[in-house]
Amino acid sequence: MPVDEALTDIVRRAAAGDALAFRAVYDAHLGRVYAVCLRLTGSREEAEELTQSVFVRAWEKLPSFRGDSALATWLHRLAVNEAMSSFRSTARRLRRVFNTEDLEAIEPVPARLAATGPLDLERAIAELPRGARTVFVLHEIEGYGHEEIAGITGLAIGTSKAQLHRARRLLREALER
Amino acid sequence: MNCTLPQDRLQDYLDGALTTLEAAAVETHLRECERCRADLASYRQLGARARALPDTLLPERDLWPGVDGGMVPRRTGVSPWLLAAAAIALMALSSAATMLWMRRNIPAPDSLSALQVRYTAATAELVRRVAEEEKRLSPATRAIVQRNLQIIDAAIRESEDALAKDPANRGLELMLRTRYQQRLDLLQQVRRFAEES
After folding, report:
1. Contacts of B58 in chain A (CB under 8 A)
2. Is B100–A17 a contact, with Cβ atoms under 8 angstroms apart?
3. Cβ neighbours around A32 below 10 Å, total
4. With bands split at pLDDT 50, 70 and 90, how would you rate the model's confidence at A2?
5. Which residue in the set B64, B90, B96 is minimally distant from A32, CB to CB?
6. Is the pLDDT of residue A107 over 70?
7. In the prediction, which pLDDT does A77 show?
8. Which residues of B141-152 are buried (b: 16+ CB within 10 A; e: fewer)?
9. In chain A, whose CA is at the least distance from the CA of B84?
10. pLDDT tens by residue, A14-30
11. What is the secondary structure of A67-120 as a DSSP string?
12. Nearest chain A CA: its distance from B60 CA (Å)
């Protein structure tokens, strides 16, 4: 059986409810999904939870996967959407609890990545404010344009650009410290 | 000189978001302003570093139990053995999985012939036992086993050929090791399954 056919066959089995075939899908794509979750959240704990949610959602939605895009692309988009949904839910809760629209003022300084050794780029990205981090990761690492980012995040295109500029400035300062 | 160019304008230039006329004005400014040239270089370097970050990262703990616990079973008529074979075949074919493995295991360099000798020695007894016990499996299961072995063997041959042509390529060597291990895993599963049949 050709390689492409074999892969399609396994995805089809997973979509049909084969848990072990889905485990193979998970093994093959875990690293990519976890990487985007970790960079978007800036926190190991959040990324772990989010990764699990992404794969549970993938299990639920796989029957609707039509193969129009590669499975990796489909999972990646699912991860980004799950992250945005989680952020929106957190934002709603914070607004309600603190009765404020200025979420950055109350955004907790997260435990983030291990704070040992020299400040590297991963850690500096993790320490950005959430809005700036999201746009920087989507634009600079994941390669989305501002229009796509606006569609994903609900931000205006101008705000997306402003957040990217801010992220770059903050990263430069952090890395030059 | 006193720099009057806003940083946002410089970043718009970097992102190609300016009109030709606006970009030309920034370029004129850049010829005269050392600070902006340095800033631009710094932003470019930052982008290059971001794009060079690894595509895959591994969590520090096993996340599968949390995924497995959240999966509501769907009905399936497929046998457990077929599922196991499918899982192994995907692992054999997935370069992403290979990369994960490579990140976890960085063994010492080895020659192709030394690798082949060690692998053959490690699997000789297992191959013999599988050949005997395979008879207990149903014809349909045997066909699946054979199909999956063929897939992995083709991948092994491809890696061996590539490594023979480029013996110093560490990535190819690691990929070949992974594929040997995957064949070993498949044979062990066949043996276990035959024993339980």
Report:
1. 30-31, 34
2. no
3. 20
4. low
5. B96
6. no
7. 94
8. beebbeebbebb
9. A20
10. 899 888 889 888 988 99
11. SSS-HHHHHHHHHHHHHHHHHHHHHHHHHHHH--S-HHHH------S---SS--
12. 9
CA distance A104 to chain B (A): 21
Interface predicted TM-score of the whole assembly (ipTM), two decimals: 0.84
Residue A125 with chain B: CB contacts under 8 Å = 50
The CA distance from A165 to A158, in Å, is 11
Q: DSSP secondary-structure letter at A129?
A: -
**pLDDT digits over A29-41, tens only?**
999 999 999 999 9
Q: How confident is the model at residue A149 (pLDDT cuts 50, 70, 90)?
A: very high
pLDDT (0 to 100) of residue B3: 85
Q: How crowded is residue B111: how many other Cβ atoms within 10 Å of its Cβ?
A: 11
Alpha-carbon distance of B82 to B190, in angstroms, equals 11
Residue B167 gets which letter from DSSP? Answer: T
Q: Does B7 touch chain A (CB under 8 A)?
A: yes
pLDDT of residue A136: 97
Note the residue count of chain B.
197
For residue B34, the number of C-alpha atoms closer than 13 Å in the C-beta half-sphere is: 1
Q: Measure CB to CB from residue A169 to each of B7, B68, B86 and give the nearest one.
A: B7
Alpha carbons A30 and A36: distance in angstroms, whole number: 10
- Using CB atoms, pick whichever of A27, A60, A168 lies closest to residue B11: A168
pLDDT in tens, B136-174: 777 777 777 777 777 777 778 877 887 788 777 666 666
From chain B, pick out residues whose CB is under 8 angstroms from the CB of A39. 53
Residues in chain A: 177
Instruction: Report the C-alpha gap between B180 and B152 in whole angstroms.
Output: 8
pLDDT at A89: 81
Whole-number Cα distances in Å, B196 to A44, B49, B71, B133, B134: 41, 52, 27, 10, 11
User: Residue A12: closest CA among chain B residues belongs to which residue?
Assistant: B86
Domain map (residue ranges) of chain B: 7-52, 101-196
Residues 6+ apart with CB under 8 A from B137: B145, B190, B193, B194, B197
Smallest CA-to-CA distance from B88 within A32, A1, A23 is with A23
